[in-house]
Design a protein that fits this description.
alpha+beta; 3 helices; Alpha-D-Glucose-1,6-Bisphosphate, Chain A, domain 4
Length: 150
C-alpha cells in the first residue's frame, strides 16, 4: 500500500472556470475546505492560510496555472512561526482540473508523507487521516459548487 501519496477525484457539474474560482479564491476555499475563512495570495510563493474552528493551516502556493493546476505546500508538523516549508515538515497538494462536456473533473494529489520528520507509524496515521479527509473535502467542494450561484 502506498502511504506516501493520496489521490482522489470528483466530477462537478459546473464549468471549469467556475470550479477554478471555488478552489483558488479565499471566499470559497474558506467555506468548503476550511469552515472559518481563508486567505490566499494566488501566486507561486504566496502565503496560504485556511482556518477551521480553533485550527489554522499555513502554507505556501507552489503553482498557479489558471483553470488547470493549483498546488500548495502546507505545514504538517508543529513548527515555529515563519519556519520555511520543506519536505521534512510539509506535504504538497496539487489540484488538476479537466473538462468533460459540461462537467469539470477535479483530481487532488497529496504527496510527501514518507518524507516527514516523523516515525513511520505517525506518517501512516497522518496518511490515513488525510485519505479520509480528502474524500470528505471533495464532497464538500461538490456540495459548495451546487450551492453557490454561477
Amino acid at each position: 500500500m502506498n502511504t506516501n501519496t493520496i489521490e482522489r477525484e470528483v466530477a462537478i457539474a459546473a464549468p471549469i472556470d467556475r470550479v477554478w474560482t471555488l478552489i483558488t479564491e479565499a471566499e470559497h476555499l474558506g467555506t468548503w475546505f476550511g469552515d472559518a475563512g481563508a486567505e490566499i495570495d494566488l501566486r507561486p510563493g504566496g502565503a496560504l492560510a485556511v482556518r477551521w474552528d480553533g485550527h489554522t493551516l499555513l502554507g505556501t502556493v507552489d503553482a498557479v496555472e489558471p483553470t488547470s493546476r493549483f498546488a500548495f505546500r502546507w505545514h504538517q508538523l508543529d513548527t515555529p512561526a515563519g519556519a520555511e516549508l520543506s519536505e521534512r515538515n510539509s506535504t504538497l497538494v496539487e489540484f488538476s482540473l479537466t473538462t468533460d462536456g459540461d462537467t469539470t473533473n477535479v483530481r487532488v494529489v497529496e504527496s510527501g508523507f514518507s518524507s516527514l520528520a516523523l516515525p513511520e507509524s505517525e506518517q501512516q496515521e497522518m496518511h490515513a487521516g488525510h485519505s479520509e479527509g480528502w474524500t470528505m473535502e471533495l464532497a464538500e467542494l461538490e456540495t459548495h459548487a451546487l450551492r453557490v450561484a454561477a
